């Protein structure tokens, strides 16, 4: 009879242990799933960051090109300004010569 009494207890304790183990494994699976989802979200964020960096790099290259062009235009405008100043000086000289001739 001792064996008959211990049999249900043993069965119940095994069922309890098994239930605990299943619960623990379920918790582990849930934790693993959450971690995989976090990793997937992290990958998405990294991919978006990489795309944004490419866009920014293109914008920087375009800005550098624009600055280079503006520098060239500035140089040309400086040459034109110098030429205009020389022409103004030359025209003043011509005006002085005309005044002298008309006197």
UniProtKB/TrEMBL annotation:
It is found in: Lysosome membrane. Its main location: membrane. Keywords: Lysosome, Membrane. GO terms for cellular component: BORC complex; lysosomal membrane. Signal peptide: none annotated. Pfam families: BORCS7. Belongs to the BORCS7 family. This is BLOC-1-related complex subunit 7. The gene is borcs7.
